[in-house]
Amino acid sequence: MAEDFARAVEDGLKLAKRIYFGNDRAVAAPRLASPMERAASAAHAHLPTAPMVYAVIHEPGIVDNPDLPSYQPHVHGRCDPPALIPLQLNAIELDVDCYLDTALVTVTGSWRVHCVMGSKRCDCRIAIPMGEQGSILGVEVEIPRKSYTTQLITAEDGHELEKTAQPQSGGFLKPNIFTITIPQVDGGTNLSIKMSWSQKLTYNEGEFFLDIPFHFPEYVTPAVKKISKREKIYLSVNAGTGTEVLCKGCSHPLKEKMRNAGKLRFSYEADVLKWSNTDFSFSYTASSSNIVGGLFLQSAPVQDVDQREIFSFYLFPGKQQRTKAFKREVVFVVDISKSMTGKPLENVNNAILAALSKLNLGDSFNIMTFSNDTSLFSTSMEPATPDTVERGIEWMNKNFVVADGTNVLPPLEKAVEMLSNTRGSLPMIFFVTDGSVEDERHICDAMKKRLASAGSVCPRIHTFGLGIFCNHYFLQMLANLSRGQHESVYNTDHIEERLDKLFTRALSTVLLNITIEPLQNLDEIEVYPSNIPDLTSASPLMIYGRYRGKFPENVKANGLLGDMSSFSADLTVQSAKDIPLDKVFAKNVIDLLTAKAWFSEDKQLIEKITKLSMQTGVPSEYTRMIQLENTEEALPSDTGGKKQTGSNGEKQKLISRTIPLQNFGIGFGDTTATRENVPPGFGEQRAPDAAEKFVKAASSCCVSLCNKCCCMCCVQCCTKLNDQCVLVFTQLFTALACIACFECCSNVCCACGGDE
């Protein structure tokens, strides 16, 4: 899907050459990448690197300047798939609020349909690239006499709506790029768009990092005289610690507006000739060298479906330079079913090699592979000496060979059994798979029983899911049961990077078996996640919960350090008046509850998730996103009924329409795709057969020719052809047209059920 999108944008940039901007044009025509550049960045060429809007062009003949027509010869043929012409950006504002480890981002901008005749219309596609673990919250669009707003409804209502209306194209182009289409916008129209999403801050050695895609290509700069444009950025930081926050780095020249304990506020406003050509990045530190924590209390918002009180506590690991590291016993369990062929298994192999290099001499390890059968590097745990690690690498090179089947329970049981007798060490299992199996709930039950009898420090099961065919909620539930962590990657481009992130985080544990006292004395208490994960030096620990009753004034965080000594720290209890805790933790809570609902099959819990999703605007597996279209239409002066008065004083009526969007939930795994060994990936589609390719090429040949030469060149060329050549070309194109017509008729017959 991403590659198709990039090709459509490349076609759109070629079509944009038809547009005439007059003698005052200040920018050059959109520069197409050279063949060498396209080969170097084929996977990312023309994908959005900032919020973008595109004109969806099916008919190339409508492409022209709406203000200054060029009267070019008509172009015959259609763009199939449609070309995407990036619209010109007239104004942009970025507003970011950072709370704890989460950023709430809002972008407001104005784009103009500069490439379509004023008498024609086209769809406009909005593309929103987001940062780390981005989650779309909403899109609002204003055009003359119309407005569009996204909204979440229940999955049942969504299914009913799809019976009467065709879902509009949209959803996730890639896991971090959300798209939505605005139908039929007039050429020359200005679109005012507000888009919002949430994303996570990354953390490294006591420093938080914020990265937001904000790199606009040169061709979205309006092609007029050199008039400066206003670019605005507003940033606020609330670290929640009450200690001084130090700014470490920034991509744009921000001006400090406010500085208080734990809080910062900045702004940037500038007149620019070209829009930002770099992503917006900001880094800061707010923690000490030791483990520190705090606890927030907050009343539930009035509209909240859960009226219990809210609490949240955090632990920052500090730099941990003098803290003794845990002795680690690690088992890698890797899926080698046939769907892992090629790049996925190769990337997993590379990530495990890097993880083995991070083990200390006192650690031990083992490696397992599974398909229908289970293979072991060793029948017992092996010390992480250089010689043993080298033998492990040789074993992987020989045994990381794909085979049939995906049998999950035996290798997990064997790994837990191997680690059941550990003493004075931290046992952990890294479980990597790209598939889904029928008995996943049984596997969770079996692991729950085994872990309960595994001693005071049970094995941590850290799970990693590849692609969209594995059940990520099963893997998250498996991790939650053991205080482990879950990481996922839907796109095969980032397997090694994300897996290395999981290994680094889990292998850098600094505090385990964490408990908060005396939470057990509260009524109706619920903690997300229910089993508190371990604290690692690679990320802070953030926990959210609900309760009734009076919260105790003295609260302690307890746990075990690397030398297995006890740790205890007082948590500062404070009121979180200016931190929207329900929004900050919404996505995490919905994901955890969804895993629990999948495991328990609890309908009341599903209803709770649905209400929470609709309340916070965070999409879930049990909700569907829709567009609400409101259209203002002028009324005759003698028309009765309810009327509104527009800005120009004329009477108007408001017509509303609901447009369903495609479902973009990841689902609960695909056992059929697993059995058929379909490779992992995101947005995978079946390959077209030979007939489809031929018809598509035939129907698009005219458009391709227009992309490669101007209309005047075609006219001049045709005047030089002799009669015999003209006859041959006439017969050829007639045959191609008949093929396309036959395909069209076949599609109509299929749609009618073959009766007409």
Automatic annotation (TrEMBL):
<protein>
    <recommendedName>
        <fullName>VWFA domain-containing protein</fullName>
    </recommendedName>
</protein>
<feature type="domain" description="VWFA">
    <location>
        <begin position="329"/>
        <end position="507"/>
    </location>
</feature>
<dbReference type="InterPro" id="IPR002035">
    <property type="entry name" value="VWF_A"/>
</dbReference>
<dbReference type="InterPro" id="IPR036465">
    <property type="entry name" value="vWFA_dom_sf"/>
</dbReference>
<dbReference type="Pfam" id="PF13768">
    <property type="entry name" value="VWA_3"/>
</dbReference>
